[in-house]
User: What shape does this take?
Amino acid sequence: MSGFHTLSPAERLKLVKEFAMLDDEEAALLAKAGGLDLETANRMIENVIGETQLPMGIVTNFLINGKDYLIPMCIEEPSVVAGASKAAKLAREAGGFRASATDPVMIGQIQIVDVADCKKAVESVMQLRDELLHMLDNIDPILAKYGGGPRKLDARVLKTDGGEMVIVHLHVDVRDAMGANAVNTMLESIAPRIVEITGGRVVLRIISNLATERMARSEAMWKKETLGEEAIDNILHAYLFAEHDQYRCTTHNKGIMNGIDAVTIATGNDFRAVESGAHSYAAITGRYKPLTKYWKDKDGNLHGSIELPLAVATIGGATRTHPVAKIAQKILGVKSSQELAQIIASVGLAQNFAALYAMATTGIQVGHMKLHASNLAVMAGAKAEQIDEIVKRMIEEKNISATRAKEILEGS
Ligand code: NAD
Assistant: This one.
């Protein structure tokens, strides 16, 4: 389809409609804009033909560092919004979440190959690092105005199967941005000087998504009287399971990311950056571990904490171009990327607690199944006014399936 990119969204949609034999109704659904108008969407990515939409739900009850928040989530999975709201409600009884975030420092990497003596090249870069940092003084005046900018430069030798290479790390305080473009621009501007210093050849100059200098943490307590001793002990057993078994741990961390991704998407942030950073950090010791920790205090109350890198922004990327993301930020009332990171970390902890608490008590299916049943009713073709009745009957009959939903709808 040469020239596809030069067409308008409507023209592209016409071609895709013919290719995939979409009917008029399907094509119209694709072209129907929600909060994001098609013209803006067409400027965000390439070859736009339409939009998909996710439900936005509001998580309630969050008290973080003494401040109340309503938290928008965009997600297709049932029970996530309800789970986080419930966990936050229970945590509120003991003062809510106490969260913190480091300065928003991202790491950029420069790879230098074909270096005659890597050890010597590293020494030379380290000797000249002030000069290199100085070269970046005026490169991003906006960032400088808000108190950000380059902070540190390091170099090391990397031994690989294909021989040694030199890796330079540039640390940049990116303030309220995610930082990819700011950091990449800085790397590109110092790369030629690094070539001169090392006598090698630069291959990659790119931000790292393992943002270990941009960490967010949160902690909460859930009271013994509220949860009950048995539930607390079961949660601790579940945590130990995740700590020592990678199959369980992957699902444990997935539950955390349910909440983290949903807020990341709602605020127009790069959820792939957050995901890759989170899982990489979970494995940073060489063993894949839970991003949360749980323990019991001497009075038997349950404590939970979370720690992960969170490269989330309140400026740049889609955070301001997507009109709905802008409104999500307004609902949150966030003033900085650090505050947003604190909220998202707290949501991750709450989400994980909610899943563990449900599994350790009633089992996860009870809550899940009602929403699942309603999805099945919709899939079976039920109209809005028919859904509740079909869901009720399937739950009563303990037979929640696509077949049963269809049968009830057809009156059998
Ligand atoms: P950016 O995140 O680098 O930031 C843009 C600019 O915002 C900064 O240069 C700075 O001048 C300004 N800024 C920072 N804090 C500010 C503040 N408080 N007030 C006013 N301005 C401020 O640029 P970007 O273009 O938004 O880059 C992020 C995008 O890059 C994301 O959408 C991401 O998906 C994408 N990306 C990611 C990767 C990766 O993760 N590996 C790679 C390439 C691109």
